[in-house]
Specification:
The complex is a heterodimer of chains A (about 450) and B (about 525). Chain A has about 450 residues and is of the alpha/beta class. Chain A has 14 helices and 13 strands. The chains are: A alpha/beta (about 450), B alpha/beta (about 525). Chains A and B meet through α1, α2, α3, α4 and α5 of A and α3, α4, α5, α6 and α7 of B.
Amino acid sequence: MRYLPLSDIDRGQMLSKIGVQSIDELFVDVPQEAQLTGPIRELPNHASEMAVERHFQALAAKNTVAGQVPFFIGAGAYRHHVPASVDHIIQRGEFLTAYTPYQPEIAQGTLQMLFEFQTQVARLLGTDVANASMYDGSTACWEAISMAGRITKKKKAIISSGVHPHYVSVANTMARFTGDELLTSLPSLDAPLNPEQELINQIDDDMSCVIVQYPDILGNINDLSAIANKAHDHKALLIAVVTEPVALGAIKSPGDMGADIVVGEGQSIGVGLQFGGPYVGLFGCKAKYVRQMPGRLCGETVDASGKRGFVLTLSTREQHIRRDKATSNICTNSGLCALAFSAHMTLLGEKGLRNLAMVNHAKAVKAADRLCAIEGVEMASGHFFNEFTLKLPRDARAIVQELADQNILAGVSLGRLYPKSEGLDNGLIIAVTETVQDEDIEALAAALEASLMGGLA
Amino acid sequence: MKERDLNQGRPSRIFDTANDSAPAATFSGNKALMLDEPLIFELGSSETCGVDIDAMEPVKSRLGGLERSQVIGLAGLSESETVRHYTRLSRQNYAIDLGLFPLGSCTMKHNPRLNEKMARIAGFSDIHPMQPISTVQGALELIDELAHWLKTLTGMPAVAMSPKAGAHGELCGILAIRAALEARGDAREVILVPESAHGTNPATAAFAGYRVEEIPATQGGRVDIDALAERLGPDVAGVMITNPNTCGLFEPDMRKISDLVHAAGGLVYCDGANFNAIVGRVRPGDLGIDAMHINLHKTFSTPHGGGGPGSGPVVLSEALAPYAPLPYVTQTDDFFQLVEEEQSLLSDSDTFGRMTAFHGQMGMFTRALSYIMSHGADGLKQVSEDAVLNANYILRSMDDLLDAPFGHSGPCMHEALFSDKGLADGFSTIDVSKGLIDEGYHPMTMYFPLVVHGAMLVEPTETESKDALDNFIGSFRTVVTKAKDGDKSLLSAPHFAPRARLDETAAARKPILVWNEPEATEAAE
């Protein structure tokens, strides 16, 4: 077996050093009836590199690769170009095969990277501080709700209809067990384009927090200042969720508009699609709440000779010290994805991120104009960044499937996100990033047009 | 000298320099290959960009007046500078690729590069989680295939694939237990956790709304089964037992514990962090457990990446399977379906809900399956046997010098536990750790588990050769001997690392968590 270096001669020598006759004597604590006698028969034996590769290639060939077709899917994960050097950097063995930096003297590489990541994230989100990352945006969102509960000592929260339904689902799942009360609602294709207005009217003194998404699930962007003020009037926190961080290169940050905690999905920058994971949760907040934050934090300090260095810090919040009194049960972060994020962000810089964001917006505007020119297609979003929702004349699910059969990945139907919800079936969320070419937009428009004509006939 | 003039210093020669000493410092602050590196904010500028972005004709903005007017404050570097920055940083890290990494309970084994290659096949890395199901059949098949391996290796009927890491897997198992108990109208409020448990166990139970009570350990480092039996009752929802446990010992009474808990109406969570010791040799399902997470980043060698991402699928018993979280994969004939909220509504399922936005750590599934297929059933059995052999070899090569609190009672599993007993006054486990750094090793896990004073938990894993173990043992013995002899140089170790000991107290007292421009700092002071 190519990964196991011991020879039978080594094993023999080691057994005699230990003072036993056979390996079985080392498993003496395992009751006999629980021990298997040989390799598990239902499973195949070891395979060569070539054999494994053949198997994987065969499976991969059954999937439609996003980069090989006109591609417009977003709704919480976005296809952006990742520079080649990012993947090279994360494959450096010293990053790839390192552990959590608990021994800072020999982990400054990871620690300094995390400190840079925290700084980039905090600046992007408009918060004072940010942590060293969470699993993903959805779990970061629940952690934020839970944190707001600790800060305000209240157990009721209101979630905007604009928040990704899977994030709402994660929060509902947790709230069911923690006894938190969550008020939720569904978006609408016809309602006012600013669902936050409705939300504002519902905020009361019992609420620990208000959760909004920016840009929201339908792609809308709305000013958060009014809702922040209203929340603060009632001693509630405003939590903003960002699932497309590239947007923050073009539009104001949630922190600048008064959000107290800003969480996000960092996948767009550096990480890639990967069928849903691993991704990287972003988590930033105001400095005064830092001791209530979940997850790892990296901080600056000095070593015994006075040299600047970095360490994991404020760990008295964490499970390995506080056990059942910890702010969260989270242990790991998403270190390597944070590195990918940070390296890509470093390549972009201020100027690059702003340019990238404006290219995304311009392409989305172009696509929106082209698609809305099709008879029967209406724009259901107001102001948007790189994603918008169309209202089609019939169930968008069938159309998405029809176009997928023609190798066009058209977007996400609201029917899939909101099953059995009246009035949403005809909605289609379309994301347009820098990876979309003019001919892709034309291909989508032509196929959609043909499909709708067919549907009318 | 004349000869030297003629060849202008080439080839280089060694002169007698006995009376010269090395300079105390260099102009750059670097020491040859030991290179310090500033922060990107100190190196870069807002105008520098390492990506060429195609220009676009401007369009009329639809941003609704929300255009960002303020500076974000990001620093950019060109590609060449970026690659150099991270390469220089990387050299300040210890890693498995550099040497033996004996962190107990973390299972730092070799990360095969085939796994990296497989994860990067575009058919897996460049597909979107919300693509139509018909366009991701190969991805769902891969998840199903990995699920089959995990179920068969553990002897359990079901597995939830979506948890993002070990602690997230624990949460999944505990929520399934809670959902199952609630479904039978039996609200219970307490989860019992042995005192030797990893911190995530009590934190998870509390995060899921349970009260946590500790069960003491016996002198032999096992769960005190009498204390457990005494505490069981109608308010106990279940237990969380790590097996093999955090002392590196198998819990021989696991089956009995399961039976006792079940008889009292509770359910059994097994922390599978140490599955590496028994994979292919023991099926936890044969021990009566109801749920166990598997750290793909430990047993199945997906890279730790400097602290994640992990992946923590949870195998479930018949009793808990109906409550598994969404989404999950099912197969009908040749078609793989992803059961999300819609299908779940249609089938009236008992799922406890959703734990994450999408389907779990696909990038880790590909790597883990590549690892598992490479080993096969025979190789995996060899994995656990070699892991246990290597740990016992270290145990018996050290226990004449260093206190092994449970070493007298028999062999250990995949990790060997030592205590600080016998070190000179004023010397502690941390000094041994820092001494090992100077020897070129990452230290073992220190001060965990809590049941042993000054714990040193050493897990070599199966991917170390006998020579590598012998070299490590040589260093470990040297450092321990210094600590027993009271060699003061150890107290200021490490001496040869990129940094000396860091002031963690100062870092926590006045946290600096983000970089600020020096001007701004001065103004604030």
